Amino acid sequence: MNKEIIVSGIRPTGNLHLGNYLGAVTNFLKMQHEHNCFFFIADYHSLTTHPNPADLHANVRQVLVEYLACGLDPEVCTLYIQSDLPQIPELYMMLNMHAYKGELERVASFKEKVRTQPDNVNAGLLTYPVLMAADIIIHKATKVPVGKDQEQHLEMARTFGNRFNRIYNNSIFPEPYAFNYGKELVKIPGLLGGGKMSKSDGDGNVINLIDSPETIRKKMSKAVTDAGPTEPNTQPSPAVQNLFDLIKIVSTEDKLNHYQNLYATCSIRYGDLKKDLAEDMIIYLQPIREKIATISSDAALLKRVVELGREKASASAQKTLDECREAIGFKSF
Ligand code: ADP
Ligand code: TRP
Fold it and tell me: Residue 191 domain-assigned?
């Protein structure tokens, strides 16, 4: 198969949940063996919200630990921390000289921030898509595994890369495109009856990979259901359908059939279903939870992983940056 260069980053915002794992990380696990992958923790991007230094470090560490626990292999892919690469801000600066205020102000994610945090509309926020473009094109990536909400940012990465090529009369940067495995995007439902599992709906809506058995039991016991079926063979409400969907993911088919039959015959007891689902969820996540604990206490391993990632990612980034410096006219004497 033709190997592509893949880049993807996530902002370090705490713990990964089951939705992140099944919706995003499992794709990374597959990709790392098929392509030349660069996965990074986007801590420069986090600065737009002014995190305190201790929180920032703890979040970066936690995401790194959880990535490794899920199975990202730092020997196979390149796993690094964005702020370890000074080449990224250098390219960001170069791209900024040809990024215009008007086009940046029209970006949907910027307009959204202007609305939601009007007291912190800083230049970093305005130029967020430029930094993201630098992340991607510094490795000459062609594919970027991200969700639909990032498509406009990808379009801008293409614009800035093409503009640089044109202005400096070269073809350093290929065009990067958003990328997904399969046609169907998985959507893991949340516990509170609404749509997807997402931390923006509160901790009660998500099962985190590190949640203890006790926490999982407590969250499951509070999962939203309904008053119960009153007539045989009716459609479950969305909240109950969510629970069936979760059973489908973490339990056996027999168990799903069992509860669907009880539902169809109006003899279901949601308390039993939720307890049962909690126990299966605990078993499903146990290997990852154990790995998180082991990896988290292995400071030497983390240091090695970060150094290896920095080394591999820097080499790739420096190569591109040297070409850019040359193209711009920064030549050695
Ligand atoms: P959250 O919605 O909890 O803030 P993020 O937006 O940080 O999660 O998502 C990080 C990655 O995880 C994205 O690639 C996103 O598509 C994926 N993801 C998040 N929640 C789900 C879900 N419930 N089902 C499938 N994928 C998800
Ligand atoms: N903007 C992305 C998000 O909010 C994170 C990100 C930063 C990213 N740089 C990237 C994603 C480069 C892919 C490639 O999810």
Answer: no
Ligand 1 center from residue 166 Cα (angstroms): 36
Rounded alpha-carbon distances, angstroms, from residue 239 to 22, 191, 199, 218, 332: 20, 8, 17, 17, 64
Structure tokens at 262: 């009880």
Token code pair at residue 5: 């260069």
Its domain, for residue 211, covers 199-293
Provide residues with CB under 6 Å of ligand 1: 10, 19-20, 23-24, 147, 186-188, 196-200
Co-location of 142 and 93 in the same domain = yes
Distance (Å, rounded) from C-alpha 12 to C-alpha 42? 7
pLDDT, tens digit, 9 for 90 and up, residues 229-250: 999 989 999 999 999 999 999 9
Nearest-10 crossing angle of helices 128-137, 108-116: 140
pTM to 2 decimal places: 0.93
HSE-CB for 120 with a 13 A CA cutoff: 10
